[in-house]
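Renewal narrative, Specific Aim 1. Our central claim is that a sequence can be written position by position from structural information alone. The example that follows is taken directly from our test logs and has not been curated for this report. It begins with the structure tokens describing the chain, in the order in which they were read.
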């Protein structure tokens, strides 16, 4: 079973509660008044947004069973889509009275009935009032956390700690929903769907609040070797067979550190029980790695996903692989598989790989060139490699990408690199007549404002 892509998974998470609510309208008795209509707007928008929030909480823990359903290597894109839809639904829920008073009179004839208001006796607040007030402040807190997501200067560690509050917000919304849902609305299938998701999401929300994100796919990995280069740190770790999946990515955690120090890295190569990773030599995390003792044991979570580079199985296939910087790890990971496929004769099409590097002394490039050149020499009809050095030719821009695609007429393309390069490659591929569904890319932007597409 192939995992569902993030956009399709987000659509399913939205359409299921929406359909359940719509179907329930066939038998639900809704008061034909302006107040009844406003309550339905509140119930529908609030219930669907709550269901989506539960899906976010569950996927944030990356449980083992879920990775067989959703492509968790791209769950950041899933979170982004679901999060934006949640924001829109929460706004509708928050302004339901204003929307209802503006639109519902066009549908429902207003009734002149005098409502009897029951006020709570005593000086304390009723449970309903607490639920209403908590919903208001939880909305403000959610808005603040979402704004912080779009502040590039906010340190990632601090941003990740603030995101733990979303689990607290979810638990607060559970009280808000249970108290304010009207009795006649419990016959709606949306209520039961939210109940099922709540039973699943509550343990994960508590885990996120007290422990942090991450799955149970954890393993200790003794450090075998550590080579510090100019651009990359090459690490070899001893692992168990489940982690021997080149092209997948793992979350690397430093010893004696909390979960927020985890960083994702693609598995470059494997040999027996040895796993190789390439880590950028810049930044605080790289500084910590450089000072690890030789006997250190690191923690790995995963592996997740698979390589995004497709193979050319038919003679009509002409595929473009564009790899920039550390994205060349994906190329290194798939080279052994490409060689085996070429030797067995299952590769009948053409693959043209283009590597974008700063200079020809890039350590990662030098490590993958021997095997790549050997494959290109033995199977020139199936594979070729070109290196674009920024230092010699200048920066690879959109015009050059378009000319490159127009000259080759690719049937499929895959890009591993920055969001800017992915966007540039995708536009060039589509402009030369390529199908948008035949463009593949790893989604690595944790906090980018928009996906590469």
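The sequence written for that structure reads:
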């Amino acid at each position: 079973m192939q995992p569902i892509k993030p956009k399709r998974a987000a659509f399913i998470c939205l359409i299921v509660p929406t359909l359940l609510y719509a179907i329930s309208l066939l038998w639900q008795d809704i008061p034909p008044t302006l107040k009844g209509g406003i309550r339905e707007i509140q119930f529908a928008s609030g219930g669907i947004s709550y269901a989506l929030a539960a899906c976010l909480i569950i996927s944030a823990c990356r449980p083992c069973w879920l990775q067989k359903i959703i492509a968790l290597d791209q769950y950041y894109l899933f979170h982004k889509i679901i999060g934006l839809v949640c924001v829109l639904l929460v706004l509708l829920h928050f302004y339901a009275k204003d929307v209802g008073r503006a639109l519902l009179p066009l549908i429902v004839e207003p009734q002149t009935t005098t409502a009897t208001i029951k006020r709570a006796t005593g000086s304390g607040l009723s449970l309903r009032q607490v639920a209403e007030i908590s919903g208001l402040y939880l909305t403000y807190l959610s808005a603040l956390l979402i704004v912080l997501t779009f502040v590039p200067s906010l340190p990632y560690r601090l941003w990740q700690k603030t995101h733990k509050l979303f689990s607290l917000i979810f638990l607060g919304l559970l009280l808000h929903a249970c108290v304010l849902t009207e009795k006649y609305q419990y016959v709606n299938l949306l209520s039961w769907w939210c109940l099922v998701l709540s039973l699943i999401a509550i343990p994960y929300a508590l885990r996120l609040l007290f422990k942090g994100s991450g799955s149970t796919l954890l393993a200790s990995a003794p450090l075998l070797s550590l080579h510090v280069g100019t651009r990359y740190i090459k690490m070899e770790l001893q692992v168990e067979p489940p982690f021997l999946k080149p092209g997948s990515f793992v979350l690397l955690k430093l010893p004696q550190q909390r979960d927020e120090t985890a960083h994702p890295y693609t598995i470059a190569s494997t040999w027996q029980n040895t796993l190789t990773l390439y880590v950028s030599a810049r930044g605080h995390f790289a500084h910590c790695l450089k000072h690890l003792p030789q006997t250190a044991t690191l923690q790995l979570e995963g592996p997740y996903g698979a390589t995004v580079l497709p193979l050319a199985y038919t003679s009509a296939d002409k595929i473009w692989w564009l790899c920039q910087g550390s994205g060349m790890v994906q190329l290194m990971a798939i080279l052994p598989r490409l060689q085996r496929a070429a030797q067995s004769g299952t590769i009948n099409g053409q693959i043209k790989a283009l590597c974008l590097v700063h200079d020809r002394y890039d350590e990662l490039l030098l490590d993958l060139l021997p095997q790549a050149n050997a494959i290109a020499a033995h199977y020139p009809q199936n594979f070729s490699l070109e290196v674009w050095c920024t230092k010699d030719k200048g920066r690879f821009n959109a015009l050059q990408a378009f000319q490159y695609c127009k000259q080759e007429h690719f049937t499929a393309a895959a890009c591993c690199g920055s969001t800017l390069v992915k966007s540039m490659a995708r536009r060039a591929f589509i402009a030369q007549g390529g199908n948008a569904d035949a463009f593949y890319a790893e989604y690595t932007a944790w906090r980018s404002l928009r996906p590469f597409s």
